[in-house]
Amino acid sequence: MSQRIGYVVIGRNEGERLKACIRSLPPDAPIIYVDSGSSDGSPAWVRDHGVPVHELSPEQPFTAARARNEGFRELMQRFPEIAFVQFIDGDCELHPDWPASALSFLESHPEVCAAFGRRRERFRERSIYNRLCDIEWDVPLGPAKAFGGDVMLRAKALSAAGGYRSDLIAGEEPELCVRLRASGWQIHRLPAEMTSHDAAITNFGQWWRRVVRSGHAFAEGAFLHGRRHGHWLRETARAVVWGALLPLACLIASVAFWPAGLVAWLIYPLQMLRLWLRAKDPERTPLAVFHVLARFPEAEGVMWFALSRLRRRRSGLIEYKV
Fold this sequence. Notes:
CATH architecture of the largest domain: Alpha-Beta Complex
Distance between the termini: 37 Å
Oligomer: single chain
Number of domains: 2
CATH topology of the largest domain: Spore Coat Polysaccharide Biosynthesis Protein SpsA, Chain A
């Protein structure tokens, strides 16, 4: 197994989280760590533990997509016999049973190019935001439209697709999945533990910035593949309607029909109530509130992307970790 799977770890100022990540990987496996301008000594620590480090040049913008692409290229140059590559973010730890489970599935299902399992939030009880991440990652089993940052990919499929889009600051994994599925490949979520993650989101501001990034990803994904594949058209429209157009309409109604017009704002708590009543799992009830609140930072992300397009400038990284 160690000769069939290679590992690409990406990180930026992950500190102790990165150390836990590196320690969780099989000690005899081919591994490349890709660093995006860390200032916490991460590259030196990784080198001291016998893992090759690829440091991204600061002459080009840092993105997770670029880091994965450069790590994959270096991995294949060093170990051309590798058939599968496991990508893992530097704030995650790999479950010891995952590589064997994923490899067995992929080798017995040649039509599948990517397999991913359950990513869990390691400290889900530290904040409601960490808990929301854990719920978000619990996606249905079986065929899937997209995977996240942690995934085992068939090397030949990734090479044929041309890798990730290095210029995307967010949403690079679903964008790659659109192209993979358009080429006839399948993606599967397996009933196996894959990684544990440290979101480290402890305040509302961090959560807001993370969702702004999602809104930006929705808009850019829709711009790239919406017309042909319908990619993220619905999510982008939802953000614009609930996060921008409806608030504007409510504001106009409030001013024009003061004070009776204030009743228009009830649409938001009523939507939260509707989602709360529809939730079958009590564990997911916090989603009712945050699902509605998220429309506002998502709309900000959509507008951020639109302004970047108008100014013909690439958006910078939207970071939420401290």
